[in-house]
Backbone:
């Protein structure tokens, strides 16, 4: 079923990175777009960003608050639930409050007010897989737990087979098994479970998307707690070296924002996506070191890499999503990480105010014992 385009599509977190690009795509396809966003000061210290078109209805409000979400839901046919609390800080309850309570409230209000919502798309994350999938020569597919602190302190980064302690190699992670290891990841899995189960139970078609690391313009330059693209690009722009945690051999898949937007539209318009979770990733593995070198290549100025001998506690060693399920529905991510970096740097250089938020974020993560030293430091 193709959605009726003059109907209202609510995008929570629509002032943010993924939300604002999604809103623009929806607008250009003829949807009436409404944003509910609380303009969280960590993301938007200067208030409403100027990239929000006046053709979009903007409501400043909090998705965890019944009155705010209730009024934003009036007359709505489609919902992208994208607002979230993210990153690595140890204020655990905030992750659940923002990410899970808002999702439960969304379904509560849809059911209570009998709103004829035809589709909900919720933003989950690759983080739900924790260490992801590995291959053991003896035990086949294995799913390691959080890496032990004593090994990380020694600078021994790779996980071992949970069954026999042998060396294991990473392999693509499909949607079949989750293993969240930090508060953000647990909240994201709780969020998608809430959405998919309540959606099915009350016949509210729902899709959960497990995005990999999304890159492109508008990723908040005020929040330096996560995001290799923004952290490396900000560092390079400010003349700082690019800080490499662990040994830089961590594997990730990076996805360009334009490919995420096309996946979002597909979920809205293809009912085959109902009631299940999909990986939305770049489909290609890169090490953090390779990615840092892409950033260094894009900058014309001299860029130094610094091996800090530090690690972020709770971070994943290697993860690369298997995207074959969504590709089978016709989606294909076509943009490279280099394009994402070029676009991000162009946007960054256009910003009037680029502050050194990196130092504060690093100091804060050290103070909160998120960023840790190896013994050899
Ligand atoms: N960016 C990524 O790499 C990535 C990866 C995996 C998953 N995700 C998920 O995708 C979604 C969008 O991420 P993003 O990168 O665009 O984030 P973002 O921080 O750029 O945007 C989030 C927006 O939500 C708003 N917000 C926060 N709390 C709110 C609340 N209680 N009520 C209303 N608005 C609130 C913020 O003001 C912000 O505009 C999130 O759910 C995130 O968990 C993002």
Residues:
């Amino acid at each position: 079923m193709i959605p009726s385009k003059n109907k209202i599509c609510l995008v929570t977190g629509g002032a943010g990175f993924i939300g604002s690009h999604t809103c623009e795509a929806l607008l250009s396809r003829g949807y009436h777009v409404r944003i509910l966003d609380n303009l969280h000061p960590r993301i938007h210290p200067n208030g409403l960003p100027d990239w929000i078109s006046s053709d979009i209805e903007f409501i400043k409000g909090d998705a965890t608050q019944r009155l705010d979400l209730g009024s934003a839901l009036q007359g709505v046919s489609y919902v992208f639930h994208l607002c979230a609390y993210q990153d690595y800080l140890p204020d655990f309850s905030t992750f659940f409050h923002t990410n899970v309570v808002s999702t439960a409230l969304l379904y509560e209000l849809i059911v209570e007010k009998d709103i004829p919502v035809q589709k909900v798309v919720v933003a989950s994350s690759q983080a739900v897989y924790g260490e992801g999938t590995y291959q053991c020569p003896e035990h086949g597919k294995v799913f390691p737990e959080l890496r032990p602190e004593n090994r990380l302190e020694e600078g021994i980064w790779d996980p071992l087979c949970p069954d026999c302690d042998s060396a294991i190699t990473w392999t693509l992670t499909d949607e079949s098994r989750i293993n969240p290891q930090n508060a953000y990841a647990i909240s994201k899995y709780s969020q998608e479970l809430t959405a998919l189960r309540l959606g099915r139970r009350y016949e509210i078609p729902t899709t959960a998307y497990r995005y990999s690391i999304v890159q492109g313009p508008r990723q908040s330059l005020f929040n330096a707690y996560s995001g290799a693209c923004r952290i490396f690009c900000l560092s390079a722009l400010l003349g700082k070296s690019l800080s490499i945690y662990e040994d830089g051999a961590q594997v990730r898949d990076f996805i360009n924002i334009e490919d995420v937007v096309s996946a979002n539209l597909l979920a809205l318009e293809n009912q085959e996506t109902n009631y299940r979770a999909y990986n939305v990733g770049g489909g290609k593995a890169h090490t953090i070191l390779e990615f840092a070198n892409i950033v260094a290549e894009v900058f014309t100025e001299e860029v130094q890499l610094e091996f800090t001998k530090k690690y972020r506690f709770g971070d994943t060693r290697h993860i690369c999503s298997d995207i074959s399920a969504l590709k089978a529905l016709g989606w294909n991510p076509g943009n490279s990480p280099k394009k994402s970096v070029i676009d991000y740097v162009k946007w960054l250089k256009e910003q009037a105010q680029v502050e050194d938020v990196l130092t504060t974020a690093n100091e804060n993560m050290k103070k909160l014992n998120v960023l840790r030293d190896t013994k050899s430091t």
